[in-house]
Amino acid sequence: MWFKNLLIYRFTKPFELSPDQIHELLSEQEFKPCGSQEMSTQGWVKPLGQQGSELVHTSNGCIMVCSQRQDKVLPAAVINEALEEKLQTLREEEDRHPGRKERMDMKEELVFDMLPRAFARSRKQYAYIDPANGWLVVDAGSHKRAEELIVLLRESLGSMPVIPLAAKNTGYHTMTHWLKTVAPDNFELGGECELIDAADETAVIRCKNQDLASKEILNHIDSGMLVSKVALSWSGGLDFMVDDQLTIKRLRFADLIMERAGEVHTETAAEQFDVDFSIMNAELARFIPSLLAAFGGEESGEESGV
């Protein structure tokens, strides 16, 4: 359950639905496995899995939800191989070469025949709503992946007025300034960063297990390169990579935090989930404002959301 990535969204309007209301609305789109002719399905599952009874789980006023997507695995190479066999049979038995439309129809027929026997692959996506702070926090490493869950939330709840959390200061220049001077308050630089050329963003240098204050890296910055990603440690007990869009990846909670979760006596997996979620959202409620402060505070401008 511990999030490994963070994409944080700001509600542009107060979130006022209760957990019971959310559960009822999500129930309309509860997850169902793919049917015989469905390529993919998506819906809501219980965050606690078989241990739970609700499609939401609350702790510290935060509301956890979990979506599940299932996709049929039907590799293009398998379809093309089967299609080529059918085409070869036609060439040999009927001495003709099917046109483009006939080939497309044959391909669709093959997909139709193969889908019921195709393997299905599932993945879950966790997120939680923090009404008090006005955040939607998604465990996703890309906005495309997070948008799948947000779209489903919007369809289920009727609206989801959120925009990506944005900082006042430009990420590139802020992170570059840290390497040239000193890490922001409550943070320490790690040993990894990514540099891009200010004149050509396709020119990238990735540095791992390096002293980020070394002369070699500063020389790259002096030559015009900017920091697009950097590893940081937060004094509250988190290690992570952050990019210029405030996307958090490779999030790791310190041993002290994990030990706190382990010290609480629990008798079931559901109770342990509740403890873990409670500690995690409390830590992130402290961490997110600290991260925003490091980037000069939160951008005040708001856009309308749906």
Describe the structure.
This protein is of the alpha+beta class and 306 residues long. The protein folds into 3 domains: 7-73 and 120-164, TATA-Binding Protein (2-Layer Sandwich); 76-116, no CATH class; 171-294, no CATH class. The protein has helices at residues 19-26, 76-94, 100-114, 143-157, 171-180, 215-222, 255-263, 269-294; strands at 7-11, 40-45, 57-59, 62-73, 119-130, 135-138, 162-164, 187-197, 200-208, 225-234, 238-243, 248-253. Strands 1, 2, 3, 4, 5, 6 and 7 form a 7-stranded antiparallel β-sheet that branches. Strands 9-8-10-11-12 form a 5-stranded antiparallel β-sheet. It is globular. The mean pLDDT is 91.
Domains (count): 3
Secondary structure category: alpha+beta
The description of the largest β-sheet is: 7 strands, antiparallel
Q: Report the strand count.
A: 12
N to C succession of SSEs: EHEEEHHEEHEHEEHEEEHH
Q: Give the integer mean of the pLDDT values.
A: 91
What is the CA-CA span between the terminal residues?
Answer: 28 Å
Shape summary: globular
Stretches with pLDDT under 50, minimum 5 residues: none
